[in-house]
Amino acid sequence: MYEWHWHIEWQTPYEFHGHAITKVIAEEKTPYQRALLVELARFGKALILDGKIQSTITDEFIYHEALVHPLLLSISSPEKVLILGGGEGATLREVLKHKTVKNAIMVDIDPVVIDFAKKYLQEWHQGAFDNPKSKLVIEDGYKFIKETKETFDAVIIDLTDPIKDSPSQMLYTKEFYEEVKRISKWGIVTQATSPSFSLETFSIIYNTIKHVFKKVSAGITYVPAFDGLWGFVYASDEVNPAEFSKEEINNRIKERIEGSLRFYDGETHITMFSIPKHIREVLEKE
Ligand code: SAM
To answer: Which long-range contacts (CB under 8 A, 24 or more apart) does 225-229 make?
Structure first.
């Protein structure tokens, strides 16, 4: 029997996944959430907020590339991009790979998570916070959206899951998506929880957004550290990433991305938007 400390992550109220912890790097109770930075035996360095793994050094590239690139590549020339949440700085890193991007504004509510990221998650942000195109705002994303006079080519929503009493709860509502639509010229994307463990929540997010935007598509991929499929919802009145061919995506990556991608290419794109029948049936039930 190994003498590990365990991170117990509840996937649903009646099942959990246990991750062996080899080292606790930092821990803090912030005004918004409990932030924990650990080394996991299987996945290495990991950020955990309120008991939920946000990302691990081993496979964060899957989640962050899947979140950012389908939307930004579907837009003809994204220059000004807003990120809501995105604590680790890896979403910012992926946005900055787009040669057309001139301004990337990231709004996260929790300065402690940002301090953790700057201090311990260099492998995630890779200096993105110091890029002259980046601007970091510490504020509630909903408040920022309501008050800003600016518009953005794309809005990328990278928040913690919509759990009761979490700081992100209100940022999954129809009212919020209406405000986001007001300030986004071409489209938005949000992480949308797990089709494996919370298919109903995934479907609610997808259908809530469908009431606000004309073209809405769901994308999924497997993230090992999340122990299941992860879902994303891309929305716009103008463009639909799901309609792009493998060849078009590969061409756009070649023309528009600086640096390398490990997960996303034309072939991966097709798999992300090939949703299995049983999931499609739930999404289309409403
Ligand atoms: N990959 C993650 C996942 O699987 O859920 C999400 C990544 S990121 C760490 C989530 C960020 O959302 C955190 O840094 C948190 O502080 C931020 N956040 C939560 N509620 C927020 C709000 N109302 N406004 C802005 N940022 C918020």
So the answer is: 225/40, 225/43, 225/46, 225/53, 225/55, 225/56, 225/58, 225/59, 226/53, 226/63, 226/194, 227/9, 227/11, 227/17, 227/196, 228/11, 228/194, 228/195, 228/196, 228/197, 229/194, 229/195, 229/196
